[in-house]
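2024-03-11 09:14:02 INFO worker-7 job=invfold-0412 stage=load source=structure_tokens
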């Protein structure tokens, strides 16, 4: 795929096929494959993460690793059926640095987030959710601009230029990284609270 995207009236399936050959930034050179979004074609809630991790890169599916397990369990606790959502990422290739035998997540640059945004917008346009849920600062900034501050705007419904409003909460990986089980428990409880609040917004 060249620098210009011809999205036209492509279905989600054709978008996924086109994204498989995306060369809009250099991340495709190192990742195993493009990890496109998946889920219910007309989900009321569309979740956006940062980028695929090691497990997702290998599987070719979003949120199938530890952060995905946490996310799905938290959704279920909050009364959101994960099967009725659509889940994707702001950046669709895994960005990493190699340390020994491990591939360690590396934060995407603005240029990579921007290069991937047409895919995200096209997914949102096809799914037409009632609400887009940004998981973490990278997703929120991709959707709402680099001025967006998660610490100030968490849970707040923000109108967007591209269609449905956006609400942001933390990224599930930040809960996994919390220092100690008390902090992890408190952050998980707050995250489930956010998801309950979000479920209430579309009820
Ligand atoms: N973290 C993300 O942001 N996305 C995934 O798909 C997995 C982990």
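2024-03-11 09:14:09 INFO worker-7 stage=emit residues=203
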């Amino acid at each position: 795929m060249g620098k210009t995207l011809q999205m036209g009236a492509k279905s989600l399936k054709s978008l996924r096929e086109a994204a498989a050959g995306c060369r809009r930034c250099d991340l495709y050179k190192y990742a195993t494959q493009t990890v496109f979004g998946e889920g219910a074609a007309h989900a009321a809630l569309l979740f956006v993460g940062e980028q695929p991790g090691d497990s997702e890169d290998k599987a070719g599916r979003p949120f199938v690793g530890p952060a995905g397990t946490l996310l799905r369990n938290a959704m279920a606790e909050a009364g959101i059926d994960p099967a009725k959502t659509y889940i994707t990422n702001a950046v669709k290739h895994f960005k990493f640095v190699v340390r020994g035998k491990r591939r360690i997540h590396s934060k995407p640059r603005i240029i990579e987030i921007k290069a991937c945004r047409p895919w995200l917008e096209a997914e949102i346009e096809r799914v037409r959710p009632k609400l887009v849920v940004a998981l973490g600062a990278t997703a929120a900034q991709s959707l709402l601009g680099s001025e967006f501050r998660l610490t100030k705007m968490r849970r707040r419904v923000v109108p967007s230029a591209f269609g449905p409003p956006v609400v942001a909460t933390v990224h599930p990986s930040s809960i996994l990284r919390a220092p100690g089980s008390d902090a992890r428990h408190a952050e998980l409880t707050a995250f489930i609270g956010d998801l309950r609040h979000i479920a209430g917004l579309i009820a």
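2024-03-11 09:14:09 INFO worker-7 stage=report msg="The longest strand covers residues 163-169."
2024-03-11 09:14:10 INFO worker-7 job finished
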